[in-house]
Design a protein that fits this description.
Elements lengths: L4 E4 L3 E6 L6 E5 L30 E4 L5 E10 L3 E3 L2 E4 L4 E6 L9 E5 L2 E20 L4 E3 L7 E9 L9 E8 L5 E10 L3 E2 L1 H4 L25 E2 L3 E4 L2 E8 L5 E17 L4 E6 L3 E4 L2 E6 L5 E7 L5 E7 L12 H5 L2 E3 L6 E4 L7 E2 L2 E7 L2 E5 L3 E2 L2 E9 L1
Parallel strand pairs: 1-7, 2-8, 2-31, 3-10, 15-16
Antiparallel strand pairs: 4-5, 5-8, 6-7, 9-10, 10-19, 11-12, 12-13, 13-14, 17-18, 18-19, 19-29, 20-28, 21-22, 22-23, 23-24, 25-26, 26-28, 27-28, 30-31
């Protein structure tokens, strides 16, 4: 690259690691922001530096449950160009990122950013739904309000594997802010010869085809169908396609996925303990009081250094307990944040039931930071925070 000074246009971005999932906002699909590098992948011939001084390389950490994580920092520059002797990096074209394997709420998950270690506590999210858009191969449609993630139509092709003249396949992926893709792909198949039996439920109990070796003939029609679906699903994300026309325009009825809005992290190690009713303990400058322990509930009061008090009943809803780790609604019942936002206390649900023999297992954090999608990073306002899975 030729020599020049470095210039950035607009905000930089800082990407965190996180999981997302539920609750509703519906958007009309739109293209990404003009002039922004958000959701644009690095060039295929981009330079890669395996290690940078000052960043974390292959650090091994453990979660509260003892799960081993290997953590790496990274710096990403995308969509840069040279103009008038300057290297221009567009808005959201410079990232410092943290990556590790899948993480879970309330497990004291470690991540690093620019060499500093943070503990991920829990996240909150919204459900993003886009309806009635038409896409061509390569198009990106944003799915959240700030246009920082969305869906990309990766390719459209005839269903050449089976030689169907009227069958077509479209394949979609979810695009992250960084231009990387979520691991899953979403292939859909449409055509007059393709049955949606697997989508409409008619295969749930098996087909009506005879067992064993059967020779196809005019009566049993075993040679005149192919299975495929105009619906593709992975977890809580899905795509529904109505048709693909002769020009390979893909008519999408609906996209659905989740986007993280809030992520609680801490720069400090947590305080663990088992407490009876009437117990009290300190975490940082705050005092925590434990009251009224029941079979599956407890009252927790946080008193800040200023004297302000935050009280909340923490509990596990037994009828919905199976959704505890996935459901934001169920997780919200398990923790309390002080009014100043610096202290967070949660039920220690990761090892199992926190209510035992009249006591409750709690985890408490000080130095808590609330990271919101699109917010200024709390140590450097030049950077935006973009939590992503």
């Amino acid at each position: 690259m030729t020599k020049g000074t470095l210039k950035t246009v607009g905000k930089l971005s800082l990407a965190l690691l996180l999981a997302a999932s539920l609750n509703g906002v519906a958007l009309a699909g739109v293209a990404p922001v003009e002039g922004s590098a958000a959701m644009k992948s690095p060039a295929n011939n981009a330079a890669v530096v395996a290690k940078l001084i000052g960043l974390v390389n292959n650090r091994v950490e453990k979660t509260a449950l003892g799960t081993v994580r290997t953590i790496n920092d990274g710096v990403v520059i995308r969509q840069s160009y040279i103009k008038d002797g300057k290297i221009i990096i567009p808005s959201e074209g410079l990232y410092t990122t943290s990556r590790s394997s899948n993480w879970y709420p309330f497990d004291n998950e470690p991540i690093t950013l620019a060499g500093k270690t943070y503990r991920v506590i829990v996240d909150r999210y919204v459900r993003d739904v886009v309806r009635d858009v038409v896409m061509k191969e390569g198009d990106v449609i944003t799915s959240n309000a700030d246009k920082s993630r969305g869906w990309q139509l990766m390719y459209v092709e005839g269903w050449s594997t089976y030689g169907l003249a009227d069958g077509k396949e479209a394949n979609f992926k979810i695009v992250k802010t960084t231009g990387n893709y979520y691991g899953a792909s979403f292939p859909v198949h449409v055509g007059a010869s393709i049955t949606n039996d697997a989508s409409d439920g008619s295969l749930v109990k098996g087909s009506n085809q005879p067992a064993g070796h059967v020779v196809p003939n005019e009566e049993n029609n075993l040679s005149r169908f192919d299975y495929g679906n105009n619906v593709a699903t992975v977890g809580r994300s899905y795509v529904v396609v109505d048709k693909i026309d002769d020009k390979n325009n893909v008519y999408v009825r609906e996209f659905g996925t989740d986007s993280c809005t809030d992520l609680y992290v801490s720069t400090s190690e947590p305080v663990y303990g088992s407490y009876a009713s009437g117990a009290a303990f300190s975490v940082g400058d705050a005092k925590v009081a434990v009251k009224n322990i029941g079979k599956d509930s407890v009252e927790v009061a946080i008193t800040e250094k200023s004297g302000a008090v935050t009280t909340k009943k923490l509990y596990i809803d037994s009828k919905n307990a199976k959704w505890l780790l996935q459901s934001m609604v169920e997780r919200d019942k398990c923790y309390v944040v002080s009014k100043d936002g610096k202290t967070l206390v949660h039920l220690n649900i990761r090892p199992g039931n926190p209510f035992k023999e009249g006591k409750v297992d709690l985890v408490a954090y000080t130095d808590v930071k609330l990271v919101q999608n699109g917010s200024d990073w709390f140590t450097d306002s030049r950077f935006l925070a973009r939590p992503e899975t």
